[in-house]
Known about the structure:
It is a single chain. This protein is α/β, with parallel strands linked by helices. Helix content is 36%, strand content 27%. The protein contains ten helices and 14 strands. The protein has helices spanning 14-24, 39-49, 58-62, 76-88, 103-116, 130-140, 162-165, 173-189, 280-292, 302-319, and strands at residues 5-10, 29-35, 53-55, 69-72, 93-96, 120-123, 147-155, 193-202, 208-217, 222-228, 237-241, 244-249, 256-261, 266-271. Helix 4 (76-88) packs parallel to helix 5 (103-116). 46% of the residues are buried.
Amino acid sequence: MNPKIRIGIIGCGWIAEKMAITLQGMEKVEAYAIASRDYKKAEAFAAQWNFTRCYGSYEEMLDDEKVDLVYIATPHSHHFEHTRLSLLKGKPVLCEKAFTANAKQAEELLRLAKEKKLFITEAIWTRYMPLSGTIRELIDKEVIGKPQLLSANLGYPNYHKERMYKPELCGGALLDLGVYTLNFAAMAFGTDIVRTTSTCIKTETGVDAQNSITLEYADGKMAVLCSSLMTKSDRQGIISGDKGFMIVENINNPQKVSVYNQDYQLTAVYECPPQITGYEYQVYASIEALEKGWLESPYMPHAETLRIMRQMDDLRKEWNVKYPFD
Length: 326
């Protein structure tokens, strides 16, 4: 394998730009290729972010044998099509969250990757971050005693963006923002959920504008999760135990964890290590997997990607939020 992993990106939107910024500051990687259906877009992107090659079609980029890893940076609605194309062309894939429109699509992609013996993982950046591991360690060490209650919220006023309100683009708060609250709960409290109750408020186009999800666990824990494309929220996650609580600042890119005791006294603060953007950790995890011959990353196992896609399918079914792909 080349000393540097050559990254190819499908899509030229703002997420692709964020990844491009990330790659500029990383070791062991080359910002190698960018592909768009519009060659001029790809050309401008390559010039701005110092990519080696640019392509006016995804197929052309995927035919370039020098591309070692493909990052899918298109809307949720296109993840299945573009990831499938990449796998059929023999390329390992780092696919932006939400992994697909629904669990059926996710199952097909993971089955295809397994058949082709190709690495694939979901680019839900929170799963790969060092501070996310620290949160788990603090829970395991029972620094707040026995954890019982969790709350998490994530909201940005993005309702005006086309990809957020159109069903054909898999719009709504759930797949874009709620996926983070669900992952936060999973990382902190696990997966032994015995009951889910939820509600949502819809947009005129029929997708969820705001939602509230309550998860009950077999051992009595509870997680209360909210996401919204209508409001700017504090993005906090609070995990409470019988001996204290911890506050996580920014659940999708944790910046700081503050630990408090039973007397509401601050006892410890854990800061996020210096970041380029935070996207680097998922890329380094992908490189580790490629170097070791793994087909999935231990940070975001395929089983977890599937479980959360099914969880979101069930929530949308309850809310009667439908996509053309269902």
